[in-house]
Task: structure prediction
Amino acid sequence: MFTDPQSVTINAVAVPLPQVGQRENGATYRSADGNVDFQIDHTYGRRESHRVRLHHKKLSADLMSPSLNRPFDEAVSIVVNRPDAGFTVTETKQLVDALLAWASASSGANITKLLGGES
Result:
């Protein structure tokens, strides 16, 4: 079980996320203002799926009417999908570590390229 509260840092600001919900195979954590939530979910069967999702909401200027603010939201997820046998947890962690290292290399240059539509 993850500790309560969880915390994420967005743009150098730590956001505490106390647990607000628990399910059989998951939990939800949410900031006090409700603008950031963090979900952890697992499914089991012939394949296992483990997902962590960070969701962020904010008010920002409407592109069509800049004098008006409207709500926007975005989410980022990491999903690990693995067979119920054949790979150890250590091997799967090594694969996750490799992907996260690629994503964070050169101060996140690869993620910047990804978000810019490069492939």
In short: The beta strands are 6-10, 13-17, 19-23, 26-30, 36-43, 47-61, 69-83. The chain has two domains: 6-83, 87-119. Residues 6-83 form a domain with the Porin fold (CATH 2.40.160.220).
